[in-house]
Amino acid sequence: MAGAMARPKKAPPPAPRRRRTAEEARAAIMDAAERQLVAAGPGGIRLQDVAREVGVSHPTVLHHFGSREGLVDAVVSRALDALHADVTAALADASAGEDKVAALLDGVAAALSARGQGRAMMWLALGSPEPQRDDLRLREQAEAVDALRRARFGATGEATLEDSQFMVVLAASTMLAHSVMGAHLLHGAGVRGAKAPARFRAWLARLLVAHVERCGGATGQGA
Amino acid sequence: MAGAMARPKKAPPPAPRRRRTAEEARAAIMDAAERQLVAAGPGGIRLQDVAREVGVSHPTVLHHFGSREGLVDAVVSRALDALHADVTAALADASAGEDKVAALLDGVAAALSARGQGRAMMWLALGSPEPQRDDLRLREQAEAVDALRRARFGATGEATLEDSQFMVVLAASTMLAHSVMGAHLLHGAGVRGAKAPARFRAWLARLLVAHVERCGGATGQGA
DNA sequence: GAGGCTGTCTACAACCCTGTCAACAGCGAG
DNA sequence: CTCGCTGTTGACAGGGTTGTAGACAGCCTC
């Protein structure tokens, strides 16, 4: 014990110093920060925690991102871009089919829950009351849905666009809410079982398909 | 100026000291804390901010609630109780009618947005991945919906309960998501106008009613 | 009117977080 | 091999937060 105290002031072994490329370091730091973003929100990201998780000291994080805010911005941007890419991929995959709608919803749900992107979106929405970035491109998707319906049922009505928009909004709201509290809601309503979320998505898909089949290309407004 | 400096160490005018009853003080503090809860989440509640908003010093807050955590618990409990009461009232009001469903959704939306209770629920859900308190009593409501359907269409099928549960879950998810990011979603999808949320709720009501009319008391499972 | 219960305050202590600074140390270029 | 760029670090400063301690002061009771 006394022997270990040989160095009175220089203390512990200097610890081997790894040196990554700037890009590697940034990526590793952002990965850790993203996990914190999903778990605790943008306000919950702590430089010290991020640094510890990566295995560096916190000034290193500041060196790469300038400030805490810089880190948060970078992480949020990257997460939203990834989300957009995943959702787009899921939509492209399934939009060809007809009532592959269930598969489409499954794909979106997977994109939202894979790395907690749905939670991240919700954190961001809670943080800023005003609409901010149109990250989900809902408008494009509503127009795509509308086009599909017209192609299938003919352009019987013009007011239909809003109907398609509402369908997209409904699907998006539901998938987002479920990525955050799906388990709460299903369990709370008394629906049990590990496959409950999938059954719910399938049910929702049937509901949407039935709505389209019932209304065709015409608006349901006046009905 | 020099005359005002008469007291070298006791400084500013002692400031008139109001004395409330413990109950009044607790209520005022919880009101302020609730506003912060809605705006910044449970983790965003700062004793100093709460105290400043009420017009007291932060040790007063600690005196009444013991600790920050005590305050948060009290505020969360009170908010959830209020939400439950409001939602229950909205449901009781409208459940008598038939397709007063739109009015029912309006009532729930109002209960969720009036004092930000929907945002509060979302903050809490984000904070705890595991299902926690069954604050919305979704189970009861699903059973009520199921009972109504059976009363109206007869007990044609037994598997119907899950259908009703899903309807309630869908409505709840959507209303919750919209209380947080309804504006984002509608605006993002291209739906404009101050009455867009109300139109969306009316549309959702028609969708749900149509579903029930189409499926009656029998399950939509095998269809 | 006197006394006590308790709501309230000022001042202080301990902790945590972000950001700065000067110095150290890989790793590639010459 | 030497030099320099830059990723990396420990130490420190400044601000902010929760929580404590002791004194002050309304308001109710006797």
Number of DSSP E strands of chain A: 0
- Note poorly predicted spans of chain A: 1-11
**Secondary-structure class of chain A:** mainly alpha
Helix content of chain A: 55-70%
Distance between the termini of chain A: 87 Å
Largest interface: A-B, 58 and 59 residues
What is the chain-wise order of helices and strands of chain A?
HHHHHHHHH
Features:
homodimer; 223 residues; mainly alpha; DNA-binding
Describe this structure in words.
The structure is a homodimer of 223-residue chains. In chain A, 68% of the residues lie in helices and 0% in strands. The N and C termini of chain A lie far apart (87 Å). Chain A has helices at 22-40, 47-54, 58-65, 68-94, 101-113, 117-127, 138-153, 160-189, 196-215. Chain A is elongated. The first copy, chain A, has 223 residues and is mainly α. Chain A is built from nine helices and no strands. In chain A, α1 (22-40) packs across α6, α5 crosses α8 (160-189) and α7 crosses α8. Chains A and B meet through α6, α7, α8 and α9 of A and α6, α7, α8 and α9 of B. The structure holds a DNA duplex (30 and 30 nucleotides).
What's the topology here?
Two copies of one chain form a homodimer.
Chain A: H1 22-40, H2 47-54, H3 58-65, H4 68-94, H5 101-113, H6 117-127, H7 138-153, H8 160-189, H9 196-215
Helix pairs in contact in A: 1-2, 1-4, 1-6, 2-3, 3-4, 4-5, 4-6, 5-8, 5-9, 6-8, 7-8, 8-9
The first copy, chain A, binds a DNA duplex (30 and 30 nucleotides) through helix 3.
